[in-house]
Amino acid sequence: MSAQSPSSRPVGGTEYSWCRAVPGGTGITVLSLLFSTPPNLPHLQSCIHKLQSSHPLLQSKLMFNPSTHQFSLHTPSNPPTLQLHIPSDPLQSFYQTIEHELNTNSWTTFNKPDQVTEADVMFVTCYRLLEQEKTVVVLRVHTAVCDRAAAAWLLKELLGLYCDKASVKEGLGLAVEDCVPAGKGNKPFWVRGKDVIGYSVNSFRFSNLVVKESGVPDSTRFVRLKIGVEETDRILNGCKSKGIKLFALLAAAGFIAAHASKNFPDEKWEKYSLATLIDCRSQLDPVLSDRNIGFYHSALINSHDVNGGEDIWDLARRIYTTLANAKNNNKHFTDMADLNFLMCKAIDNPGLTPSSSLRTSLLSVFEDPLIENTNQLHKEIGLLDCIGCSSVHSVGPSLAIFDTIRDGELDCACVYPSPTHSREQMQDYVDHMKKILLESCVPQ
Q1: Tens-digit pLDDT profile for residues 221-235
Q2: How far is 350 from 5, CA to CA, in rounded Å?
Q3: How much is the pTM?
């Protein structure tokens, strides 16, 4: 997929959906690195250039042609070196830099019907922190060219380059639809129509968190959920013993906490929706790895009835089984086009979503967590912390969870739209989720 890759190509269906979503505020991927001392900026600039050279997709320009209403990716024959941006004014905290970057949108001019538009797909900024004399380096990338697995690989590769390790060159890459194995994405026309109608009708039955302010949100906010090593180990062992994955337990905690937040009388049922993102790389043709930069996830949306009295493990098993059955029926491939279509329709018609807020599910989670471990190289270069997540203030969930097992601890970057939901509301919600998770791992 490297030597023959073209220097330009039209975007695929899933990439197109992200191209529509990002101008409004969903799909700005941020990878933030906290350093104890200022990095060697000339060396960092050189490493970023090497990173782009190894992954031409990161050098590409995203282009929109209003005459054809098409987006494309184009890599210039002599791409300019990406310049490191260094703001003159320091920020207060590491978390403030994350929120600032999630709401810095370099793609807002896209989708204008009267002009050809082009922009870089990646930006890098280096911030000074006022209160701690520390430094934050942030990579901000358009999600159409970089999913969570790719972002984690970029972190690993960038730190390796910073420590003078080599990288391997690849090409512009393919759209995920072009890599679906033959026959697995097929769906008869009438079945596709029925499923689209089914998704649309069911969405009107979904319950959500209390909306604090109606209308399309204008920003993304961040809250973090961390659980210690011992408790995380018990949670993961519990999932293993019951034959489920961590995402199902996180979703179950989110459903139970959402129900409790409304102070309903006992046994009142609500239907909550869950969007689960699935990394398809290992199932594609050709099989890809994390170092293949691009967007190679698919999504499945499922709904579950909750009355607040459920055992969290029973609910988690139900959530896991529903997703597993859907995957066994290849719905993560066959429904890809349906969900892309509905995502764009929601963007065009926010009034069809609850309180015109563009919320399409209560939660979004990833099928598998990232696994990261600090090594000696990280300590030598002064890397203190790392957080990766994406914005959600166009179409998306009320809470998106980016979970990582870092040095044995469960570390979740959680993002939500504002002012649809308030900081106090979502902090309380995430704190309750954490309490439910901790209670689930207490030995009986």
Answers
A1: 999 999 999 999 999
A2: 38
A3: 0.92
